[in-house]
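Encode chain A's predicted structure.
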Amino acid sequence: MIASAPAILAGAALGTGVAVAVAGATRARPDLGDLLRRMDAGRLENLEPRAVRGADSVLEKLGGRLLAQVGEGVVRLPRQELDLLGRSPAQHVGTKIGFALVGLLLPALSVAAVALAGSSLPVTVPALGGLALAVVLWLVPDINVREEAANARREFRYAIASYLELVCLERAADAGPSEALRKAADIGEGWVFSRLRDALTRAELAGIPPWVSLKQLSEELGVPELGAPADIMALAGEEGAAVYSTLQAQAASLRGVLLTDAQSEANNASEKMIIPVTALVIIMSLYIGYPAIARIMAA
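Encoded structure for chain A:
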């Protein structure tokens, strides 16, 4: 007996319904990657709330694909600066690609302008010019990132000076080394204290002393000013040393260094203003004195 088409469809529908019911009644197996991401204590985004990022741009996707093809070693990313600024390698490479594309297109626009004027240029001129400009603009994002990272490190140092003072106050209130580091980090606000709280929470979850995590953070970000207080607190935590006066001296020394750097920057800014001010005075003098000089020469 050959089953009819309606009977086949009805049997298929019944089998599908039974399979769906059984799958819904049984416990679903969790995704392994999601479990590992939630259990990994080294991922900072799981420890401190982060700003929600928007969808990846086209350039960032291109940067991710380029990194997947050639690797970070070929591109030579300033990884330490990117970690300090909180930027992904794909985002940075995408920015470099965008700058390089602009460099390639600018000579083409100049050729179009010359063509509208009724002239023409050899093909080799815009081609070589576009390649040279693309190479130059490819390096511009690296320079910008290093400048921004230098400013971020300066801000980090100012925050560390305040953090040392807070740790001193916590130690004066008979707080233990680990407790003093944690409470001082909880008091502060801003991205620097957020990174400190991340490091301390990571140390707590990983079962390592907090000063070890702070030392690692100072090496990762290239901020040695954070490594010195971490070593001091290690003496207090491991050997029970009294470090209140040492912390105060370290904070005073760091403030003195920051003040000296600020004065040096102010002096450099004043020196840079000498040439524009001198040129402005000369121009104004010529503007005022030229009519009188012209009349004298005419007479």
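Residues 124-172 form the longest helix (49 residues).
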